[in-house]
Structures are given as C-alpha cells and as structure tokens.
Amino acid sequence: MSARRDSLGVLAIGIAFAMVVPAAGQTQPAAKAPAKAAKTYTPPKTAWGDPELQGNFTNKDESGIPFERPNEFEGKKIDDVADAELAELIKERASQAAQRAPGIGGAETGAGPIHWYENYNAKNSRPWLVIDPADGKIPPMTPEAQARIAAMPPARSSFTNGPWSGPEDFGLYERCITRGIPGSMMPAIYGNSYQIVQAPGYVAIRYEMIHETRVIPLDGRSHLTPNIRPFMGDARGHWEGKTLVVETTNFDPRTTYRNANSDTFKLIERFTPVAPDKVEWAVTVDDPKTWTRAWTFAMTLTKDDRQPPFEYACHEGNYGMPNILRGERAAEQKR
Question: Residue 168 sits in which domain range?
C-alpha cells in the first residue's frame, strides 16, 4: 500500500463514501476555458485514425463544486456567472474547507490540515455541475420513483448503527467491490486518477479508487441480454466527431445511480477533448421511471501523465470492516 493510502487509511474511504462531491482547499481559481477554443480544438489521431484520448487524467480540480446550482445564483444560468464571481466562490470554499479539515473524522480522530489532501488547491472550472436543465437543478422524481424509494430498506454503510452480522451488511464501496458509474469518476479526497487506454475497436478506462477497469467496445455490438447485469453496467461506445460517446445499460440494481430503476436506467457519457490537456466529461442520466426528464452534469478532466493511478490496495487496508464486526461480536456477548 502506498504512503498516501497509509496516511489517510480507512477514515478517508469513509469520508469519500459519505460525500458525493466533497469540499476541498481551493485558493487559486482557474479561468474558464474559452468556448471558442473548446469548439475549435482538434485532437491528434491514433495510428488507426480515432481521436486521441489516451493518457492519465484527474478530476481533483473539480472537487468541492456543488452538484446543483447554489441558491445564491438563483435565476442565473451557468454561463452567466462571471470569472470574478467564480473566483470569489472558490475563495469562500477554500476558507470553509480549511476550517473543517482538522475536525474531519471527529474531534478525537481529526484527519489533519487541508494540505494533507490530494485535492488541495483545486482550481474549479465551474460554479456547479448540472448543466441541463438550464436552472442547474435535478428534475423532480416521478411518483413511481418516490414510492419505490420510500419502500426500500435503509442504506447499508458503516455510518449506520448496524446490526453487523457479516460483511454483506456493508455497502459495496466499503467492501472494496465497486463505486459504480458514475461514482468511480466523481471527485473524492484521494484516488482521483484515471487512465484512458485506446486500441483499435476499444477504449478502456482504469480507475484508481477501487481499481476497476471498464472495457468499452466500439464495434457497434448490441448490449448484453437483460439478465446479465455487471456492477458497472454494460458499456457500448462510438465516435461522434472528436467526442467519444458511451452508452451504459444493464446495471446491477445495487449500483444504479441515485436509486434509479435498473430496468430502464441508462447513462450516456461524452468525452470531448477541448484542449491538449483537458477533456470535458458530460453525463446524461436517463430513466423515465425515476425522473420526469433526462438531465446532464459535466466536469473537466485534466491530463497529468506525472500522476498515474496508484495501487489502491483496498482489502489490505480495510481495517474498519473487521474491527466493526469484532466490536459487534463483543457487544453480542455482553447482551
């Protein structure tokens, strides 16, 4: 296990699990990428003629961005936020994150100052993530979805009170099995590296956290039959100009995003090179049985070949699970 894993350990895993987009130290805002430059940039080609996407990427600079539009920007679209406003917003996030950092994990097990974290000094590219609808808000859930979710059993995680009969009472993330999609691409306090590899007819994405790999065929084959449901779904890709479009279906019910219906849930990702070191990653969440309309969020991936994915060594460092189970067995003996 790397030194970084040892220093943060299972505490960091728990914090990352609890936060969809955790706050981070941010002191130096980055200017927005000019829309004209993004439209006109043409990436190089691979030897077989596909647009070049390969390399090591990170989304650590997107850490701390609110998922939906904050109330302070009521009435504004994402492109209406001026660079100066974004700069002030980043400064405010940095100040709040610095104040919270020593106490993360509780008063007795504080995780240290903000510069310990991988996403320190994140240079956010935008004020919020949801880009469609234009109001920056996730559409309402359908009545069917509200009823379905209300009837679901409570979510399992180490942040609940158990009971802990065995490892199955923990979530898949805490069991070092999967973060799912798009969870594996979302910013966390560490483990934010991704490696994209291309070959004729395929693109593969290797994720640092949990150390999973998606192999995406580009040959037009059909999706798997409905009874085969991988944890990360069944991905199929194709090129639209310079954009890699990936449609993923057939999700295992335990890994559908935001409690979507696994039978009708579909994710459409678009990877668009917008600069030599930037890729825009946009995700359309489509499930008519869960939301009243499809919706999209986006963030920027930054190329950094100096930072390949580290070995995650999740099981080797997952001390929290056996210790919780030992504690539960000890408590049972006292009852």
Answer: 34-69+129-334
